[in-house]
Design a protein that fits this description.
Low-confidence stretches: 1-8
Number of strands: 10
Structural class: alpha+beta
Oligomer: single chain
Shape: elongated
Helix content: 55-70%
Strand content: 5-15%
Largest sheet: 5 strands, mixed
Radius of gyration: 41 Å
Distance between the termini: 54 Å
Bound molecules: adenosine-5'-diphosphate
Amino acid sequence: MAKKPADSSSIAGQIASNRQIEKLLGYLVFNFLIFMAGFIGWAAATETAYAGEIARNIDRRVNFDNSANGFWAAVDTGVYYFGEHSAECGEFMRGLILCMMGIGIIEIIVWLISCFPAYFNAKRMLRPLNKMAFTATELTRAAHGENTNLDDIESALGSIDPMSSDMHISTGNRDLKGLEQAINGLLDRMRDAYKSQSRFVSDASHELRTPIAVIKGYADMLARWGKSDEKILDESIAAIKKESDGMNRLVEQLLFLARGDNGKQPLAMTNFSLSDMIREVHLEAEMIDPDHEYALEIKDDVTVYGDVSMLKQTARILCDNAAKYTPKGNKITLRAMINGGGECCFEVQDTGIGIETKDMPHIFDRFFRSDPARSRETGGTGLGLSIAKWIVDRHRGHFEVTSYKDIGTRITVCLPCKM
Ligand code: ADP
C-alpha cells in the first residue's frame, strides 16, 4: 500500500478562511456603498422637491435626538438639514436600515453556505502539490529499496520523459507554473544524474572486467603449463604486469573523478608561470617519448592563477593523447600564449590521426573512445579528457579543439589570467 501524501488540510483551511474573510470585507464595502447611494438618492429627490434644484455649496447634515429611548426611536427622530431647509428622514432611514439588514442576513447565509465549497476548492487547488509530494515520496522510498507503486528507482527515474507528462507535474494552473517547472526540472536533473551515474558505474565495471579476465586467463594458463615452460611464464608475467598497470591507472582516474564529483578534490591555487610549466612538460615528454619530435613555442611569458599540478596534469593528458594518436616520428608542438581575448592559453598540436567530426562532441565524455582509438591498442581508458575537462572547468576555463582527419589535432586550454 502506498503511503498517503502529506496532509495539507491546514493550508487548505488557511486559504479558505483568507478567501472568506476577503469576501466578508467585500460585502461590508458593498453594503456601505448601497447605503450611501440610497441615502444620497433620497436626499437629491428631497432637495429637488423642496427647493426645485440641488444647490451647490450649502451645509448638509443629519441630526438625531440622542435622548430618544432606544435605537429605533432615535432613528425615527432623524432630520436632514440642507441650506435653509430641513426634512424629516427618520422613516426613510428606518426603511433603509431594515433593507440593509435584510441584505446583510442574505449575505451571511450565502457566506456561510460558501464556506464549505471554499474549503474544498482550496483542497482541490492543493491537489497538484499533494501529487508532487506523493511522487517525491514514492521516489525516495524506491531509492531506499522499499516497495512502492513504482517498480524501482531505475524505472521510476527512467520513466521521466521530458516530453511526456507521465512523471511530470502538470496542474494547468497558471500560478503554480513556476513551482511546476522547478520541480519538473529537478526531476529531469535527477533522472539525468542517475542515468549518467549508472552509466559511469557500468562503464567502469566493463573497463575493469577486461583486464581482470586477461589476468585470470594468464593465471589459469600458468597454473596448467606455465611453471615448467619459461616462454609461457615470461609472457604471462609481462601480460599480468601490463594489465595490472592499466587497471591501476584506471582506478586512479576513477578515484580522481569520484573525488571531483564529491567535491573532495581540493585545488591549491597560486600565481605561477604557465610558460615554465609548459617548458617542464615539454622536457618530460621528450625524455619519456623518444618516438616523436617535440617542439616548443612560448609566445608570451604567461602567468596564471591556478593549481599548478592540476594544470600540469592537463597538459600531460593532452601530450599523452597526442603521442598515442600520432604516428612515430611525427611532430608534436607545445605552446603557451595569451590569445586575442586576453586569456592565458596553452595548447598541444599533433600531426596524427585526427578526430572525426561525428566524434567531436563526445571526446570529453567519460569512457568515450573513438573507433580508431580503440583499435590502436593505445591503453587509453577514455577518461583522460574527462579529467582534463574537470580541471579546466574548475579554473573557469574552456577548451578549443581543431582537428582534421589524418592531418592532426590541436587542443587549446584557455584560462582567465586572473580568477
Ligand atoms: P583515451 O584514454 O582513450 O585517450 P581520452 O579521454 O583522453 O581517452 O580521449 C578520448 C578520445 O578522444 C580518444 O579515445 C580519442 O578517440 C580522442 N582523442 C583525444 N585526443 C586525440 C588526439 N590528439 N588525436 C586523435 N584523437 C584524440
